[in-house]
Design goal:
- It is a single chain.
- 42% of the residues lie in helices and 15% in strands.
- It is an alpha/beta fold and 403 residues long.
- The chain contains 16 helices and 13 strands.
Length: 403
């Protein structure tokens, strides 16, 4: 089978590029032809797989800029047409391309069997996350719209752009044959908003060497420094932890728009000496970061669609503490494959951090169980086989460019 991957996040150093760097060789090893079409800069990370690059939204990432570019995206559509003509795929695998679901891309792709990988809530949510002020998600159960303004998640002036993006998303339901989503929480949200053709398929992670043993009193966080990730809750938990474990440290791997604010918060809380902001960390450096960590914390205050950093920690033997929300609660079975804590609750988070850092037997048992879970459900072998099965079903459902 010939599979063309088109992914708007392929040029960025992070989870998606790492996912593609592991997935594409795994598919090739199974005898399938794979090609990649991504934004300008994709060749810098995934050169051997790239057959074409397109210009990704020169109007900027403001809501209006994204919406206007999405409506036509002419330059991207030309490059996609070229890639389709040269590669002649049996199926196209789209990822993170809601900025290109406008009219021009539809004309380029509507004749090709297509799978869309949803890695967040962007098909149904302008904020790309199930995120409500009261954190109970009830405000996000229905179709996005005026409720987003009423609860304060979106200002009124963004409504026209949001409505345009939603209109294009609904049109895309006509030609996207299958959506694969990494958690049942995301599957249910997509199905409630019209994406009935959504299938559950968790992401794959490289297993690597299982690192078990006594670890230090270091808590790590890996991900964006943005409001929905809950790093501010971790900082509020640190003073409570330091009262009981004065040598505990928190290492934050990642960057984002909240970095300055979080650094000021750490100073205000008096924990700046115990919190290290590592900045962006390359994927190849993550195993050594995990090797010295007592636990990984995912303190999200939104319903995560999956939780890639959690899955990686489970595969590498790092005990996990995660918020009891969304896809995180599917990866972490409380006191079996990790510990769950209440979202936006610094006291509960600090209790779980102290427990996992002081109870060696518990930490080791959680790490072993999590590794077994990862081997059975999250390995790239399992993921690649299930993705190929889905692609074959879609390719068989209607003619491709090669037929």
């Amino acid at each position: 089978m010939r599979i063309l991957f088109i992914d708007d996040y392929a040029r960025r150093l992070g989870g998606v590029s790492a996912y593609l760097a592991n997935l594409l060789p795994a598919l090739k090893a199974r005898g399938h032809a794979v090609g990649l079409c991504g934004p300008v800069g994709t060749r810098n990370l995934l050169r051997e797989h790239v057959i074409s690059e397109y210009l990704s939204n020169p109007l900027g990432w403001s809501e209006c800029g994204r919406a206007l570019w999405s409506l036509c995206s002419p330059l991207g559509a030309v490059k996609v047409r070229k890639a389709l003509a040269e590669f002649r795929p049996d199926v196209v695998h789209l990822g993170g391309c809601t900025s290109h679901l406008g009219l021009a891309w539809v004309k380029a792709l509507e004749q090709v069997p297509t799978v869309y990988r949803a890695h967040n809530y962007e098909l149904v949510r302008p904020e790309q996350a199930l995120y409500a002020r009261d954190l109970n998600q009830r405000n996000c159960d229905g179709q996005a719209g005026w409720i987003c303004v009423a609860v304060g998640c979106r200002p009124l002036w963004k409504q026209p752009a949001d409505r345009l993006m939603q209109w294009m998303s609904r049109r895309a339901q006509r030609w996207i044959d299958r959506v694969v989503a990494a958690s049942t929480a995301l599957v249910e949200s997509l199905r409630r908003t019209g994406w009935a053709n959504t299938t559950y398929l968790p992401l794959g992670v490289p297993l690597g060497e299982f690192q078990e043993g006594r670890r230090g009193q270091v808590i790590i966080y890996v991900g964006r420094l943005s409001p929905e990730k809950g790093v501010q809750v971790l900082l509020r938990a640190m003073p409570l932890v330091l009262r009981r474990l004065p040598n505990c440290q928190a290492w934050l791997a990642g960057d984002g728009r909240l970095r300055g604010q979080l650094m000021r918060q750490a100073k205000k809380l008096g924990v700046s000496e115990s919190v290290r902001f590592l900045g962006p960390v390359g994927y190849g450096q993550l195993p050594s970061l995990h090797a010295g960590a007592g636990a990984l914390v995912a303190p999200s205050v939104c319903a995560e669609s999956f939780g890639l950093s959690v899955a990686e920690a489970q595969a590498w033997g790092t005990p996990v503490i995660a918020s009891d929300v969304g896809g995180l609660a599917e990866l972490v079975r409380d006191r079996e494959t990790g510990l769950l804590c209440r979202p936006n609750d610094p006291q509960d988070l600090s209790d779980r951090m102290v427990e996992i850092l002081t109870d060696t037997a518990l930490a080791r048992a959680l790490a072993r169980n999590a590794r077994t879970f990862a081997e059975r459900h999250l390995s790239f072998d399992v993921h690649a086989d299930r993705l190929l099965e889905t692609c074959q079903q879609v390719a068989d459902s209607r003619p491709s460019l090669r037929q």
